[in-house]
Amino acid sequence: MGRAVGIDLGTTTSAVAIVGPDGIPTILPNREGERLTPSVVLYQGHDWLVGSSAKQSVADAPDVVQFVKRHMGDRDWAFVTTEGRQLEAEMVSGAILRRIKDDAELVLGEPVTDAVISVPAHFGDPQRKATEDAGEIAGLNVLGLINEPTAAAVSHAVQTGRQGTVLVYDLGGGTFDVTIMDIVERDFRVRSTQGDRNLGGLLWDNALMGYLIGQGHSGGVAEDLMRSPELQERAERAKHTLTTTNEARVPVRVGGRQQIVRVTRTIFEELTRDLLDRTRANVDIALADAGLTADQIDHILLAGGSTRMPMVRDMLGSFFGRPPTPGANPDEAVALGAAVQAAMLAHGSAGYTEMPSAGTPATLTKPDIVIHDVTAHGLGVISFDPATGVHRNHVLLPCNSPIPGCGERRFVTAASGQSVIRLRITEGDDEDVDFVRTIGQARIALPETSGRTPLRVVISLNADAVVYAEVFNDIGNKLGDLEIERGSNLTRVEIDRAAASLRRANLG
Ligand code: ADP
Ligand code: MG
Fold first, then answer.
1. DSSP bridge partners of 178
2. 427 alpha carbon – ligand 2 mean position (Å)
3. Which of 200, 269, 294, 329 has a CA that sits 20 to 30 A from residue 235's CA?
C-alpha cells in the first residue's frame, strides 16, 4: 500500500496533508510550492490544468470551471465545454483530486494510494456519495470521509492538547458549518451540527460586486456584469484588503469607462450584515440542539478562509464574551485533521498513545483518536396509506443522531398479496413529503403471501454517513439488502468511464 493522505476538497481551495513519522500532520505543498491549491480546472481537449494556472485564466479562457463543489450530488448539473463535452461535478472534482494526488507523490517521492476526504458536515448522502465517486475517478482508495468541522477540531486538539467543549465555526468560500463537540482526551464526541449549503465568502463577494456596479455607474446595472469573472476577482481582492485595512480602492470598468470606487470596511460590513446574521442563527440552533448556552463553550475554533474577516471575529467575540481561540490556521486545519484520520484508518493508529498536555504539541506517543460524529439531516422512509391516499414521511433517524447508526420502523404492505414494495428513502426531518428530499429508491420482491405483509425496514448510516437499507419480515428473516438507486449520483458504468477518461488526460 502507498501512503495515506488527508484531503480538504474545498469549494474555493483544496489542501493535502500527511502524518509524518513524528506523528504530526503537515501540509504537502503542490508542484508550484503552494500550500493551497485553488479548486479551479481549465479544460482543453485532453489537457486539464488545475490550480493557480487555471485560476489565472478564469477571466479569459472559456472552459474554466470553479466552485464545482456546490454541484456535487446534483445530476442535473454539468459543465458544458465549448466543444460540447459534458463534465459532471464528480469528473471535475476527480481532476482536482488527481492533481493533488500527483503533486503529493512528487513531494513524497512515493505513490499515494489512499485518502480521507473532508466534506461539509451538512452534506447529505448524495453529496457524500458523489465525493467518494470523485475520489475513485481520481484513482484513490477513499478510506473514509470526515466532516470538515470535526477535522478542524481534531487537528486543533492534536496540535495544542486543548480539551473541553468546543464550537467550530467553519465559513469557507461556498458553505457554512457549525459543530459543537466535546473533546475528552482522545475522544471527539459531536453534540450537534448545523449548516447552510449556500452561505460562504462568495456571497460576500457578490454583495460587494453589487455595490461596485451601483457606485461605478449611475443607472442600468448590467446583469452580465454580475457574472463577470474579472469583477468577481476584483471584489474578492477588495474583500481581502478590507480584512487588513479600513478602505479599499477598486478599479471598475463600466460602460467603457474606468473608475476607481472606494469602499470602506464599515460599508462592506453593512452590505453583508444579513449574511453574518445567518451564520449566527445557525450558531443559535447548534447550541440549542446541543442543550448548551454560549458560556458553556470552552473554545471557539475557526476554520475556512472567510473567518479571517474582522466582522466574523467581532461577532463571535461579542456573542461568546471572549475572542475565538487563536493559533490554528483556518485554511489548513481541515486537511491536517483529515490526515490524522487517514493515518488512523490506514494503520489502525495515528501513532498517538497519550494526549499532550495543554500547550505542547503532539509527538509520536500521543493517543489514537476516536471520533463520534452525528448526521446533519434526518433520514426516513415514505409510506402510503391506501385508506386515506396519503403519503407520509417517517423519520427513522433524526438529525444529530450518532453515526454510524440505524433506525427502524414496522410497516404493513398496502395491498393483500403485494409482490413488490418500493421504498423511497428521504433526507429531512419533516413528516410532510413536500419538505423532504428523496435520496434513493429501492425495490424489493416479497415472498408470496395471501394477506398484507408486516415488514421491518432498517435504515443505517455508515461512519461516512452514507445510507444503507435492509428489510426484514415479521419473524426477523432478512428479505434483502436494498440496492439504493441514487438518482442524484453517477452509475457504476459512468464512474468507470470517467475514471478511464481521466487516466488518459494530460493533467497539469
Ligand atoms: P472553501 O473551504 O470553500 O474552499 P476556504 O476555506 O478556502 O474555502 O475559504 C475561501 C474563502 O475565504 C473565499 O471566499 C476567500 O475570499 C475567503 N478569504 C480568504 N482569505 C481571506 C481574507 N484575508 N479576508 C477575507 N476573506 C478571505
Ligand atoms: Mg473549507
1. 169, 194
2. 23
3. 329
140-152 burial, b at 16+ Cβ within 10 Å, e below that, comes to: bebbbbbbbbbbb
Report the amino acid identity of residue 299: H
Q: pTM for the whole thing?
A: 0.89
* 37 in contact with ligand 1, CB cutoff 6 A: no
What is the CB-side half-sphere exposure of residue 437 using CA atoms within 13 A? 15
- With 70 as the cut, is the pLDDT of residue 211 above it? yes
**What is the number of the ligand 1 atom nearest to the C-alpha of 239?**
25
Q: Is the CB of 243 under 6 A from ligand 1?
A: yes
What amino acid is encoded at 202 in this protein?
Answer: L
138 close to 51: Cβ distance less than 8 angstroms: no
Q: What is the pLDDT of residues 55-64, one digit of tens each?
A: 988 878 889 9
Q: What's the CA-to-centroid distance between 40 and ligand 1, angstroms?
A: 14
- What is the percent of the chain where pLDDT is above 70? 93
Nearest to 185 by CA among 41, 366, 325: 366
Q: Is the CB of 452 under 6 A from ligand 1?
A: no
Pick from 330, 374, 340: which is nearest to 158 by CA? 340
Cα distance between residue 186 and residue 154, in whole Å: 9
Q: How confident is the model at residue 467 (pLDDT cuts 50, 70, 90)?
A: confident
Pocket lining: 273 vs ligand 1, CB cutoff 6 Å: no
Pocket test for ligand 1, best of 39, 71, 306 (most atoms within 8 A of CB): 306
- Whether the predicted pLDDT of 342 surpasses 50: yes
Q: Is the CB of 38 under 6 A from ligand 1?
A: no
- pLDDT band at residue 142, thresholds of 50, 70 and 90? very high
CA distances from 319 to 286, 322, 461 (A): 14, 8, 34
- The tens digit of pLDDT for each residue in 273-313 reads 999 999 999 999 999 999 999 999 999 999 999 999 999 99
Q: How far is the CA of 412 from the centre of ligand 2 (A)?
A: 44
